[in-house]
From TrEMBL:
<feature type="domain" description="N-acetyltransferase">
    <location>
        <begin position="1"/>
        <end position="139"/>
    </location>
</feature>
<dbReference type="InterPro" id="IPR016181">
    <property type="entry name" value="Acyl_CoA_acyltransferase"/>
</dbReference>
<dbReference type="Pfam" id="PF00583">
    <property type="entry name" value="Acetyltransf_1"/>
</dbReference>
<dbReference type="InterPro" id="IPR000182">
    <property type="entry name" value="GNAT_dom"/>
</dbReference>
<protein>
    <submittedName>
        <fullName>GNAT family N-acetyltransferase</fullName>
    </submittedName>
</protein>
Length: 141
């Protein structure tokens, strides 16, 4: 056997580890229907103005990233982007949506858009609280 640590662990090995853990978890849960989901908006020049991405799985939308170009923040573009992503998830049969953020302002925006904070960890990263938020469209049994 040959051990490696830190920077000596290749990017391919790191990716294989991630994929192995995810695959194992999905095999335990059975019935995974994971699919990537995304939406984006560009200006007439093709510059990305906002976007969101994540996955749908087990009748849930998992939001990984929601981003708005700094010059366009405060215009409602983030909320519009999120609503479009949610509409896609609803068409896929999702019952709820889960988001996490380290930013208090972002958590407040999610709450304004109908999400409820179900957990938070203070000082998750020094000076930042990790917020876990859930929006329920149809209750689970």
């Amino acid at each position: 056997m040959r051990w490696s640590s830190d920077e000596a662990v290749s990017a391919a090995d790191l990716q294989a580890l991630r994929e192995g853990v995810i695959l194992h978890g999905r095999q335990q849960a059975q019935g995974s229907d994971a699919r990537d989901i995304a939406c984006a908006v560009h200006d007439e020049d093709g510059t990305l103005l906002a976007g969101a991405c994540g996955r749908t799985e087990f009748e849930r939308l998992y939001i990984d990233y929601l981003w708005v170009h700094p010059d366009r923040r405060g215009e409602g573009l983030g909320g519009d982007t999120l609503r479009r992503l949610e509409a896609q998830a609803l068409r896929r049969g999702c019952r709820d949506a889960l988001a996490e953020t380290l930013l208090d302002d972002a958590a407040a925006i999610y709450e304004h858009l109908g999400y409820a904070c179900i957990a938070h960890v203070h000082d998750f990263v020094p000076g930042f609280t990790r917020h876990t938020l859930l929006k329920v469209w149809r209750a689970r049994d």
